[in-house]
Inverse folding.
């Protein structure tokens, strides 16, 4: 690795969380590399302010800390301000990540929905049969996700791609080579263009419903 010129740290789901945690540390292992970046797929989990009761993320992360003593592995830029459990959430890490990183996530991530709401909501999103009430709750969760994203500015080194397809990860899914929303390129192509500095990628699917046109029944 000491001779690497281009390097990419990537992970999906829990691996996407780990990518956010270790991104800058990874860069430190390759001081002479020309291009070092990170890619988090389906790992941009957040602690919902609107659905705290029954939220499984926080208890899960606290369990990791108690079991593995993970505090020292977390970025001190975060643990100096927040509890260790909160520093597993990438939105709490994003401002302290200086290595370029790309976040790919569904606005209706099935794990986020399941851990924040319940399997009932994840199932209806996955099978496209949510009631109007359920859709409103899912839209509220989507709004929170968008509020937790890194600032989308012209000088940002962070890539962001949020789609409205109810799913979890995409990197090892056949849809990796499908067309991304609001772009005339595939997910694969967009990551490559961002990695090789050919373009900024800051894309948010404006459809506020889980992969369905909200103007059509049953919504």
């Amino acid at each position: 690795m000491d001779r690497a010129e281009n390097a990419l740290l990537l992970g999906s789901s829990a691996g996407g969380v780990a990518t956010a945690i270790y991104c800058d540390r990874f860069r430190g292992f390759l001081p002479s590399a020309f291009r070092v970046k990170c890619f988090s797929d389906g790992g941009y989990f957040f602690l919902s302010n609107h659905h705290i009761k029954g939220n499984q993320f926080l208890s899960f992360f606290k369990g990791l800390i108690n079991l593995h003593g993970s505090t020292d592995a977390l970025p001190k830029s975060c643990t100096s301000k927040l509890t260790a459990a909160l520093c597993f959430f990438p939105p709490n890490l994003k401002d302290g990540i200086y290595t370029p990183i790309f976040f790919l996530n569904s606005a209706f991530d099935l794990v986020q929905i399941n851990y924040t709401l319940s399997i009932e909501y994840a199932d209806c999103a996955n099978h496209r049969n949510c009631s109007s009430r359920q859709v409103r709750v899912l839209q509220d969760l989507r709004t929170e996700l968008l509020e937790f994203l890194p600032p989308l500015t012209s000088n940002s080194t962070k890539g962001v791609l949020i789609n409205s397809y109810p799913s979890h990860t995409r990197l090892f899914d056949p849809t990796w080579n499908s067309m991304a929303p609001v772009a005339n390129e595939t997910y694969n192509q967009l990551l490559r263009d961002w990695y090789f500095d050919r373009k900024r990628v800051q894309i948010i699917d404006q459809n506020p419903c889980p992969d369905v046109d909200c103007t059509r029944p049953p919504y």
About this structure: Residues 48 and 144 are 7 Å apart (CA to CA). The longest strand covers residues 6-12. The mean pLDDT is 92.
